[in-house]
Amino acid sequence: MTQATMARPHAPRRTLPPLSVIAFFVVGALLFATMAYAVRSPTFIARVTVENPGPMVVDVDVRPSPHGASLSLASVPADSAASTYDVIDQGDQWVFRFSSGGIDGGALHVSRTKLAADGWRVVVPRDVIARLQAGD
């Protein structure tokens, strides 16, 4: 060591990492927590059954709102019922849409509470069947 190096006062050592490193880790932890919340798995309903008392096959889809993305639920034969297993939970409001042969039969709005009380069973309404038969 030279005389100049030895005469130089020593800078105090930092005990904490620089503020930018701390900020980086805090922001990273917040981003991780946000992503973990955003990509959580959806909940599922074990089985949803649709009863069709009508004389034609009825196609049924479900969505969480009138304009939300739909999930094809079942194609229910005439005078029978069809069950779909492991259905993605649509939330507080379930909107069932009915069609047959390209004819729109309309929608049925049902609360999650009512569906659960009914044992996750939905009956195609008579007015939907009439609309499908009339070909409107």
Key traits:
alpha+beta, 4 helices, three-stranded mixed sheet, four-stranded antiparallel sheet, Immunoglobulin-like, 2 domains, 136 residues, 7 strands
Return the string of H and E elements. Answer: HHEEEEEEHEH
Task: Using the coordinates shown, work out and report the CATH topology of the largest domain.
Answer: Immunoglobulin-like
The average pLDDT score comes to 88
Terminal residue distance: 97 Å
Q: Based on the structure given, which CATH architecture of the largest domain is correct?
A: Sandwich
Task: Please mark out the parts with pLDDT under 50 across 5 or more consecutive residues, or reply none.
Answer: none
Strand content: 35-45%
3D architecture notes:
The chain has 136 residues and is α+β, with helices and mostly antiparallel strands. The protein folds into two domains: 3-38, no CATH class; 44-134, Immunoglobulin-like, CATH 2.60.40. It has four helices and seven strands; from the N terminus they run ααββββββαβα. It has helices at 3-7, 19-38, 112-117, 126-134, and strands at residues 44-52, 58-63, 71-76, 80-88, 93-100, 103-111, 121-123. The strands form two sheets. A four-stranded antiparallel beta sheet has the order 3-2-5-6. A hairpin with a 7-residue loop joins strand 2 and strand 3 (71-76). It is rod-shaped.
Describe the SSE topology.
Blueprint (H helix, E strand, L loop, with lengths): L2 H5 L11 H20 L5 E9 L5 E6 L7 E6 L3 E9 L4 E8 L2 E9 H6 L3 E3 L2 H9 L2
